[in-house]
């Protein structure tokens, strides 16, 4: 893996002439977790997709630059809320999908090692239908790790999981993605508080950088400071909503 | 087992109904032969019926393979190329708007009295449902897969081969099931228009000579054969479309 760059996105986006988000600047720190917190429909996912170089359906005017001046294409891995596992392929084949899609030789040993690292030893032959929701997200995480990209974009990857599994996945992802530049899009204040080295709250008014916890991350789930911050973040979201009601519709 | 007894019950009820109509109306056997007479004729003419059934089955099988193959290849080609979709889409619909029945005499004229005019009929009738069903599936690859492929740096042919085609196999499977239902229709129409072999030919022949019992025997053979072909295609579809 090449050194993880920081990312700066500056600009505005419109959908059919209507502003999706006003001019804003988002700094994603090099080699740390940055959380983008906010309700649905404010353009969080659009920002993530812009950085990933994917189709957004919005007109973006502005710039997206990496701190090392190199293009981002080919240096980004994506993990979404849906695990995006291929139902017809085994866990192992799913983990090594990238190599197959690029026509490269598959490194079976490394793929097995990744499955082991996410705690799925011995389940490599299983089809996704025979894995639990948490196990499926672990396969998706192993697939992301095998891609070995310096920038990892996470679009609410844990929000469909139950509370216990979610917190376990947060621990695992934080451990395994350490050292990479991670942008996590979430609507869950608890998740942002636990994982974010930097936290930005996104609302219709724009982007607002809020205080985050000093390292280490992630804190224990019952850490007092964590719970305080979580409460303050939720209060902030509620305040935003009170200021601009009716904006939480997608 | 329960399924088998349910099917047996349905068949027996229909036979009883048939016999009941014969008794109640007193229709002569050359209008409506009773089931037992049809069964006797079937047994007495089993070699004749078998010979003609084999011809029809061959037409259907070859037509199915060619039609499904052409349909699948066309679907993949159209999924690849937007301009091909734009150009060929209307042609495809028009080809289906034209009744295949109307084409049968021309095909016989062009391809002769033998097997190939019937195979061509089966191919024509199969091609459209396979193409449209498969193409539909190919155009509806979950967007998330395509996003993933893009960030992974995949090429278009590889995305087609490793993501879009496997994801569309259930749609191909439903196209194949439709094809199995249509294929016998194509073959038999071809035989009606002009042939010297096949169950369709045998039915016309028997009908012309007022051998209604033989016609019924041939017709029922065709029905059973069509059901078996459908079941085979269903089994194939399950294999193709399994997750």
From TrEMBL, chain A:
It holds the Pfam family ABC_tran. Keywords: ATP-binding, Nucleotide-binding, Transport. This is ABC transporter ATP-binding protein. It comes from Brevirhabdus pacifica. InterPro entries: AAA+_ATPase, ABC_transporter-like_ATP-bd, ABC_transporter-like_CS, ABC_transporter_ATP-bind, P-loop_NTPase. Belongs to the ABC transporter superfamily. SUPFAM superfamilies: P-loop containing nucleoside triphosphate hydrolases. GO terms for molecular function: ATP binding; ATP hydrolysis activity.
Automatic annotation (TrEMBL), chain B:
The keyword Membrane applies. Gene3D superfamilies: MetI-like (1.10.3720.10). Pfam families: BPD_transp_1 (PF00528). The keyword Cell membrane applies. Keywords: Cell membrane, Membrane, Transmembrane, Transmembrane helix, Transport. One of its GO terms (biological process) is transmembrane transport. It is found in: Cell membrane. GO terms for cellular component: plasma membrane. The chain crosses the membrane at residues 60-80, 87-113, 119-138, 182-202, 214-233. InterPro entries: MetI-like, MetI-like_sf. It is a multi-pass membrane protein. Belongs to the binding-protein-dependent transport system permease family. This is ABC transporter permease. It comes from Brevirhabdus pacifica.
């Amino acid at each position: 893996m090449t050194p993880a760059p920081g990312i700066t996105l500056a600009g505005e986006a419109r959908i059919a002439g209507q502003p999706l988000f006003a001019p804003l600047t988002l700094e994603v720190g090099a080699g740390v977790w940055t959380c983008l917190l906010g309700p649905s429909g404010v353009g969080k996912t659009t920002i993530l997709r812009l950085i990933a170089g994917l189709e957004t359906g919005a007109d973006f005017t502005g710039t997206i630059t990496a701190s090392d001046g190199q293009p981002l294409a080919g240096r980004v891995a994506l993990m979404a809320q849906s695990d995006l596992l291929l139902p017809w392929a085994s866990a192992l084949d799913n983990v090594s999908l990238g190599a197959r899609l690029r026509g490269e030789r598959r490194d079976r040993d490394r793929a097995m090692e990744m499955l082991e690292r996410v705690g799925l030893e011995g389940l490599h032959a299983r089809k996704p239908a025979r894995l639990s929701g948490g196990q499926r997200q672990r396969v998706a995480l192993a697939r992301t790790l095998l891609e070995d990209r310096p920038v990892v974009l996470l679009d609410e990857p844990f929000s469909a999981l139950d509370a216990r599994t979610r917190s376990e996945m947060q621990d695992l992802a934080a451990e395994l993605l350490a050292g990479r530049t991670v942008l996590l899009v979430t609507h869950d204040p608890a998740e942002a508080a636990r994982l974010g080295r930097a936290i930005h709250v996104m609302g219709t008014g724009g982007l607002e950088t809020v205080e985050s916890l000093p390292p280490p991350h992630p804190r224990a789930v019952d850490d007092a400071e964590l719970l305080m911050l979580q409460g303050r973040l939720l209060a902030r979201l509620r305040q935003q909503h009170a200021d601009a009601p009716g904006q939480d519709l997608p | 087992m329960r399924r088998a007894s349910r099917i047996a019950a349905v068949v027996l009820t229909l036979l009883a109904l048939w016999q009941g109509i014969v008794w109640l109306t007193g229709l002569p056997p050359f209008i409506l032969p009773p089931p037992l007479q049809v069964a006797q004729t079937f047994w007495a003419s089993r070699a004749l019926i078998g010979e003609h059934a084999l011809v029809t089955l061959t037409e259907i099988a070859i037509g199915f393979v060619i039609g499904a193959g052409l349909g699948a290849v066309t679907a993949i080609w159209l999924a690849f190329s937007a301009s091909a979709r734009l150009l060929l889409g209307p042609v495809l619909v028009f080809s289906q708007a034209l009744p295949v029945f109307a084409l049968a005499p021309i095909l016989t004229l062009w391809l002769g009295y033998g097997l190939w005019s019937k195979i061509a009929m089966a191919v024509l009738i199969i091609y459209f449902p396979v193409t449209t069903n498969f193409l539909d599936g190919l155009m509806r690859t979950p967007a998330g897969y395509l996003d993933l492929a893009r960030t992974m740096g995949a090429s278009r042919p590889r995305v087609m081969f490793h993501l879009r085609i496997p994801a569309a196999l259930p749609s191909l499977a439903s196209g194949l099931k439709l094809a199995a239902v249509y294929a016998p229709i194509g073959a038999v129409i071809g035989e009606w228009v002009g042939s010297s072999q096949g169950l369709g030919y045998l039915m016309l022949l028997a009908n012309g000579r007022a051998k209604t019992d033989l016609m019924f025997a041939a017709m029922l053979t065709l029905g059973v054969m069509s059901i078996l072909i459908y079941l085979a295609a269903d089994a194939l579809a399950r294999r193709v479309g399994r997750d």
